[in-house]
Input
Amino acid sequence: MNLNIDLSDEKTAALASQARAAHMPTERYLAHIVENALDRQHRRSAEQLGEHLTLMASHIQQDTTTEQMEAALEEALAAVRPHRSWRL
Output
């Protein structure tokens, strides 16, 4: 992927300095920073989903069946998914 990022001269110099200290080309260093940020975001999202599912599970009544839980999950997912219109 090619991407242009407009940074101030000060930020550009700092980024170049950090890249040199890491013995990496500036472009590769920046790609590494972005990759790490995306990985952290993915991990946080997965952790938050796990926490939310645990919270939801703690509110389920003891006599709820698996089928009822699956139906409730499907209903909740349908409510938050974007509605798509497929055009051929």
